[in-house]
């Protein structure tokens, strides 16, 4: 199994430990973790978390460009990309988390995913959204400004910060990252949950052999998503280095084109 090596394929030049160390001088409120304080702080150039190579080379058109961000961040666009399944997939995440819980969302998502998640957690809950791209952090902070239980900060999902969350939601991120990065992210997220807590992965899955969209999805992946075929060929569980320490449950949707994998820490 290929392994993620900081500085080569991942957050270049930075170890996971360095990346997870909050770098901002924000005074901590009573009982507040450094990570939570970091999510309140304005971004400065010195806070930069290196952009992974795959994001710059493969996905800059989708996530780093303000015009496409404005175009894609519409509910009907997200519904179209997911063949009308966006609402159902979001609901499948919400049913795994409870109001009042402390939850990590591992990357910004176009549409209303974060807003629905924060509303579901309620004022007693806490949602930490991270993203490696400053443009996405700024934008999502604006989207969530009326939901004080939600905070957005700059971090790589492979080094998400000081953890112990009740739940972690990883929504359509894994198919976009190279194989070694998949393992780095899965391992890091499994580490951040408390005993009894859950990581919820929602992503693509190998569709049924007779799925009418299978051929078209192959073309889309070949053209735009060079790392997505891996998630058709392997189980998410295979990315975990210490998967046996967790309970795994998988369900699929829409002729198996999508999957939800729920991992519970014993
Ligand atoms: C969640 S993924 C795909 C979501 C889905 N396609 C949508 O509808 O938005 C897109 C986000 O992941 C972020 N991202 C990519 N690699 C990341 C990483 N290693 N850590 C944190 N965020 C990452 C990108 O900056 C982008 O905002």
CATH architecture: 3-Layer(aba) Sandwich
What is the CATH T-level topology?
Rossmann fold
Bound ligands? S-adenosylmethionine
Mean pLDDT: 87
Which residues sit in consecutive blocks of at least 5 with pLDDT less than 50?
Answer: 1-31
Instruction: Briefly note the structural class of the backbone.
Output: alpha/beta
What Rg do the Cα atoms give?
Answer: 17 Å
Strand percentage: 15-25%
Count the E strands: 7
- Pattern of helices and strands: HHHHHHHEHEHEEHEHHEE
The rounded distance between the terminal residues' Cα atoms is: 25 Å
Integer count of domains: 1
Please report the first level of CATH classification, the CATH class. Answer: Alpha Beta
Give the spatial strand order of the biggest sheet.
3-2-1-4-5-7-6
- What's the tally of helices? 12
Shape: globular
Question: Which percent bin holds the helix content?
Answer: 25-40%
Largest sheet: 7 strands, mixed
> In oligomeric terms, what are we looking at?
single chain
Structure, described:
By secondary structure, the protein is α/β, with parallel strands linked by helices. The chain has a single domain, classed as 3-Layer(aba) Sandwich (Rossmann fold). 34% of the residues lie in helices and 19% in strands. It is built from twelve helices and seven strands. It has a seven-stranded mixed β-sheet. The longest helix has 13 residues. The N terminus is likely disordered. S-adenosylmethionine binds next to strand 2.
């Amino acid at each position: 199994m290929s392994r993620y090596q900081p500085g080569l394929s991942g957050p270049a030049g930075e170890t996971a430990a360095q990346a997870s160390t909050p770098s901002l001088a924000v005074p901590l409120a009573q009982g507040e973790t450094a990570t939570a304080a970091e999510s309140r702080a304005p971004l400065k150039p010195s806070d930069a978390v290196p952009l992974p190579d795959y994001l710059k080379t493969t996905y800059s058109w989708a996530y780093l460009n303000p015009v496409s961000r404005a175009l894609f961040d519409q509910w009907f666009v997200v519904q179209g990309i997911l063949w009308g399944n966006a609402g159902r997939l979001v609901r499948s995440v919400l049913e795994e988390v409870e109001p009042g819980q402390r939850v990590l969302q591992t990357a910004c998502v176009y549409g209303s995913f974060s807003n629905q998640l924060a509303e579901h957690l309620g004022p007693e809950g806490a949602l930490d959204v991270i993203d490696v791209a400053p443009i996405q952090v700024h934008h999502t902070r604006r989207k969530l400004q009326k939901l004080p239980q939600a905070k957005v900060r700059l971090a790589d999902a492979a080094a998400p910060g000081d953890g112990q969350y009740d739940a972690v939601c990883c929504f359509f991120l894994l198919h976009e990252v190279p194989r070694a990065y998949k393992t780095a992210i899965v391992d890091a997220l499994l580490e951040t949950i408390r005993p009894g807590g859950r990581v919820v992965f929602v992503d693509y899955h190998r569709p049924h052999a007779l799925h009418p969209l299978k051929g078209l999805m192959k073309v889309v992946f070949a053209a735009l998503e060079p790392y997505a075929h891996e998630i058709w060929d392997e189980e998410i569980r295979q990315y975990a280095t210490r998967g046996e320490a967790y309970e795994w449950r998988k369900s699929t949707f829409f002729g198996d084109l999508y999957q939800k994998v729920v991992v519970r820490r014993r």
